[in-house]
Amino acid sequence: MRIQGRRKTKAKPAGNTYACWNRSVNRIELIRLIVLNEICDDYENVDQIILQGAAKEGAAYGLTIDRRDVVAALGWLIEQGLAKAYLLSSLSPHHTELHGMPQLDMIEENFQTYFYIAKKGMEHHLSRRDSGPPLGPD
């Protein structure tokens, strides 16, 4: 994770909680934070970028993050208005916002579905630097 102006705290879990940004969060909240961070600076595809980055970051916390975890986190982030889903194309219109979470049961081969942080998500993401609230209950 790239956190401007602060170092994050990485710690092994104590029970079912993890130390993250000097706060305790559960596994689901931590995955949501990691996924939100993955989509904060560019449109990203689950199978191309998000899963790989989330799995690597999760490993630093002793977590195994799989595709289902990432898809569930994205669904919750979209439901809460913190992220948006898009279809990207090289033809006009170059991006089309999707309403709600798209079906991602299968690994995409053509990489058309992308995710990007929403304004509300960016506000939350930036507030985390000041020990903002975690991303919701289980």
Concise account of the structure shown:
The protein is built from 4 helices and 5 strands, in the order ββαααβββα. It has 138 residues and is of the alpha+beta class.
Which descriptors would you attach to this protein?
138 residues; alpha+beta; three-stranded antiparallel β-sheet; two-stranded antiparallel sheet; 4 helices; 36% helix; 17% strand; globular; disordered N terminus
Tell me the distance between the termini.
Answer: 22 Å
Q: Rg from C-alpha positions? A: 15 Å
Mean pLDDT: 83
Strand content: 15-25%
pLDDT under 50 segments (min length 5)? 1-14
What is the 3D form? Answer: globular
**Secondary structural class:** alpha+beta
Helix content: 25-40%
Number of DSSP helical runs: 4
Strand order of the largest sheet: 4-3-5
Order of helices and strands: EEHHHEEEH
The major sheet is characterized as:
3 strands, antiparallel
Q: Compute the number of strand runs.
A: 5
